[in-house]
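fyi for ur records
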Amino acid sequence: MVGEGAVSFSDEELEEIKRRRLAELQRQLESARQQEAQRAAEEARRQEILRRILTPEARERLSNLKLVKPEIVEALENQLINLAMSGSVRVPIDDETLKQILMRLSSRTADIKLRVSFT
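which gave:
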């Protein structure tokens, strides 16, 4: 017995609903795949640029830093790429130069933290 307000569908209608839902899920999956492929291609481009602008020692330091502080490495990589592309730093960036950039970056963050905690 069908309750009051219940909607009943024919088998054909149910099949059509299933087909539409499946098509929508397939579109979503394809879109997610495309986004992942774009993200992977962008990451590959970034890594290639970093390989060209960093010495092996500097890349190793950056990799080690990524293990400890992954949240800051992407911003640091962007900054390194921008510095290299703008000609603000000599390429390839060696380990010593990377250390200096890291020191400046960490002192800036320390200043910001101090200002925030005292205001």
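The radius of gyration is 26 Å. thats all i got for now
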